[in-house]
Input
Amino acid sequence: MDAKRTAQLQALGMVWSHFDAGFEEGLAAAAAWADEHEVGLAAPVDAVVGEYPVGRWLKNQRAAPRRAAELERCRAKGLPEPEGGTAPLPDERRHALEDIDPGWCPTWSIDWQRAFRLAWLHTKAGGTLPDKAGVAIADGEDLGKWASAQRAGFTKLTSTQQWMLTSVLGVTVAPAKRTRAEMWAQNLAAASQYQEREGHLEVPRSHTENIDGETVRLGAWVSQQRVKAAKLSPERVEELSALGMRWT
Output
């Protein structure tokens, strides 16, 4: 068929491929959902436009590039290739989805992407991310609960997600909790500092010491060590005894 006749049929709405027509239908539904919800294509899997299951459709579109990325990762590391393949998403279709939302297929979960964008819209409108649940709810997402979860699990996120949280949302992360060994070392340093200055370790219970800009409740700590002396390791008993610790 020559180009002129092809163009005439296309002008009449000729469907050349049911597969292509199905994609166009899904793409139209995805664009409509994005316009309504303002979070790009981060639609939950149960999202619908009318009766069209746009969330399920988008999940299926994301499957191809994600599996392709996993295949490439396995090949690069010399690992066995995952079973079951998938046809690559044609560039034309990928570009059509990127035109609606450049971040339509993140490497992390789409639920995380949706929550992040809701949080971004909230802060963009002048709101702040609370540090507790039940304060700020957006489109069914508890932003305070989500933000708290991100702070708690920050080290488990990808470097890109961490950057998005700190640079875009201004999320601050609490320092990692000290280990018992680290806490012992800090208190022992405070005890050593006190003993060097005062010449003894008879510390008033309410006394505090400053170690590297942090306040250490040295008096209470020394009293606690006396109470639980029998449970301390011989090494720790020796460390305190070397500072002149009175055990009774």
